[in-house]
Specification:
Blueprint lengths: L16 H30 L6 H9 L3 H16 L2 H9 L1
Helix pairs in contact: 1-3, 1-4, 2-3
């Protein structure tokens, strides 16, 4: 998942390498986030009627309860209602 080789676009100056590398790792970060959201959606699907699920998720992710609730909502929305968007997310 982590790019072993980062290729400069043709005609790019060598000084652009840090920017190209940053863009490559941004893609990796998006892919990792998509994986995290998929796992959160799967976990939420296991407990569909648990209105306090975010209180379990928050300490595991080391985030606030409000942020965990928002992440669970985003995860389930992407997986259940916006699968094409989730696929694009997975692609980076």
């Amino acid at each position: 998942m982590i790019p072993a080789v980062i290729n400069l676009p043709s005609g790019a100056d060598i000084h652009a390498l840090p920017l190209v590398a940053a863009a490559a790792y941004r893609q990796v970060a998006a892919q990792a986030e998509a994986i995290e959201l998929t796992h959160l959606a799967n976990y939420a699907a296991t407990f569909p009627d648990d209105e306090f699920l975010h209180l379990e998720v928050a300490p595991v992710l080391q985030v606030t309860a409000a942020y965990a609730k928002a992440r669970l909502a985003l995860a389930t929305t992407l997986v259940d209602r916006l699968p094409a968007t989730m696929a694009a997310f997975r692609a980076g």
